[in-house]
From TrEMBL:
InterPro entries: Acyl_CoA_acyltransferase (IPR016181), GNAT_dom (IPR000182). GO terms for molecular function: acyltransferase activity, transferring groups other than amino-acyl groups. Keywords: Acyltransferase, Transferase. It holds the Pfam family Acetyltransf_7. It comes from the Bacteria. This is GNAT family N-acetyltransferase. It comes from Zarconia navalis LEGE 11467. Residues 2-142 form the N-acetyltransferase domain.
Length: 142
């Protein structure tokens, strides 16, 4: 049975391993250095400044979503649990909490782009991600 609940400090290692596994699949174009730095930033910068929810399957954390106001700062599901509606349930929780949502996705991430399009997000802006030089697409769900 799957459960969506608020993140707790004890979830950190599971959350980081989900992020690493999902990033390898969705973001193979990012440098190892950038990913190492981002992994370090998750507990220090991102989690303290977001409201984060985790998805559990059989008492195992398998995905998470982090919100900064109406911005989806992160949505990651372990690749072993892709296509099981977990991302949709996490997004449903965000929608319930915030209503209108914005998210930025790398143009080179077809998995994320397809997910957000299927959920109903529409592009509102394109720009360059300063840290990596890759194209980002800002999407909105009204």
């Amino acid at each position: 049975m799957s459960v969506i609940r608020e993140y707790e400090k004890r979830d950190l290692n599971a959350l980081l391993s989900i992020w690493v596994a999902a990033s390898e699949v969705a973001h193979p174009f990012l440098t190892r250095e950038f990913l190492v730095q981002e992994k370090d930033n998750i507990p220090k910068l991102y989690l303290p400044n977001t409201q984060t929810w985790v998805a559990e399957e059989d008492e195992r954390v398998v995905g998470f979503i982090s919100l900064m106001g109406n911005e989806v700062g992160a949505l990651f599901v372990h690749p072993d649990y892709h296509r099981k509606a977990i991302g949709g349930r996490l997004m449903d929780k965000a929608r319930e909490l915030r209503g209108e949502l914005d998210v930025e996705v790398f143009a080179a991430n077809p998995i994320g782009r397809a997910f957000y399009a299927k959920y109903g997000f529409e592009p509102v802006e394109e720009k360059i991600h300063e840290q990596t030089g890759f194209d980002l697409i800002r999407l909105r769900l009204s």
